């Protein structure tokens, strides 16, 4: 019997586990924290798919390609969109109760850069939680072995092939072996001082793959969500709120987003996020405001957001609320083919950990849950029938930057907070060669003086440093702006708007 270990318990990992088990693969799922505490449960916006008769596959494909700034893999996008409706129907069969009107028809939502309202939601703004709980319930009913609180320390590699994982469970080192390992550990949001990602998202899978020699790509493409509450701890305010008609306004009450794009608040996320950053700079670092006063039934439509807003002493039905950008999603990651295979035999990656080519330089809203479901299922099929061969385009490796700080001399002391501030300041919404070079030199010095990690927190720090080095190296190598990667020193930067943008201080948003 074929055996597989999947690391991660979000939509991608659970979809893989369910499909692989159905195909006769013996699956062990290991996850860093509690099984339901990954990034999937926090997804508010919904899942995109062509499920309404008025919508068209070609339109969803084109919307995805346009949002990706011309850098998507069109074959991957076509797979995502054409197989998406089947995966959505499967989620319904597994018990996901998508929102419906009184007649039982699916409700549809509109989000930025979509040409049609094709977004499905569950529980208003609790789509990810509904999916997470339904898939976990299905996995337990299927008898899938789930090991919680198991930290991925490294991959087991012999003769260039991956055959297992080294994990720490309750402080003890354990080796688990299998015919295939699937990384579904999410992205690396904790690289940044402000992020929508939970604390467990520290780039563990990507870093383990890099250490093992797998190819990574497109790490420079980090998406910043435009609207995160700027009162208290970061809390995402779904794009669906703007899709329902909420406006972004500056201190004078002016809708400034139209200065950057004719679609205003519903322009691609990178455009809106930079427009907010520019406005905050003009306002001395004060956050902009999201005006949702005219959106009907905020508590009913967005119950999770409404509760978070009111817990901070705000009433968004009576006054605009303060918002700011925050790191949200990593478009790059471990390079895979259309079936989840990495460049290392026996190693697969799915979900945000993978670089499928679907997202290009800027992810289209609500395509991430769809990607996890579609490519999780495809990876399961590939492992169950391993006769296929991986297919990759021309790959480029990341070049490590030489540090001017020899043996750590001259570099500031390392702390995770220092790394997060460095990345926010120099590898965030707006980058340039000088700032990226400083970041690269500092990170290289920190890595040079680092000792072998012993605790989980030290392993996480090492992972963040390695992935940060990859992000910065890739951002230095790509000299022209593209989507979420915006170089203010790029010859293609807009001289009247984008060149003047600067990332607001972290403290100004709090």
UniProtKB/TrEMBL annotation:
It is found in: Cytoplasm. InterPro entries: FAD-dep_OxRdtase_2_FAD-bd (IPR003953), FAD/NAD-bd_sf (IPR036188), Fum_R/Succ_DH_flav-like_C_sf (IPR037099), Fum_Rdtase/Succ_DH_flav-like_C (IPR015939), NadB (IPR005288), Succ_DH/fumarate_Rdtase_cat_sf (IPR027477). Its EC number is 1.4.3.16. Its cofactor is FAD. One of its GO terms (molecular function) is L-aspartate oxidase activity. GO terms for biological process: 'de novo' NAD+ biosynthetic process from L-aspartate. One of its GO terms (cellular component) is cytoplasm. Residues 416-496 form the Fumarate reductase/succinate dehydrogenase flavoprotein-like C-terminal domain. It is an enzyme of class 1 (oxidoreductase). Residues 483-510 are annotated as: Disordered. It catalyses: L-aspartate + O2 = iminosuccinate + H2O2. Its main location: cytoplasm. The keyword Cytoplasm does not apply. The keyword Flavoprotein applies. Pathway: Cofactor biosynthesis; NAD(+) biosynthesis; iminoaspartate from L-aspartate (oxidase route): step 1/1. Pfam families: FAD_binding_2 (PF00890), Succ_DH_flav_C (PF02910). Residues 483-497 have a biased composition (Basic and acidic residues). Keywords: FAD, Flavoprotein, Oxidoreductase, Pyridine nucleotide biosynthesis. Residues 4-369 form the FAD-dependent oxidoreductase 2 FAD-binding domain. Belongs to the FAD-dependent oxidoreductase 2 family. NadB subfamily. Catalyzes the oxidation of L-aspartate to iminoaspartate, the first step in the de novo biosynthesis of NAD(+). This is L-aspartate oxidase.
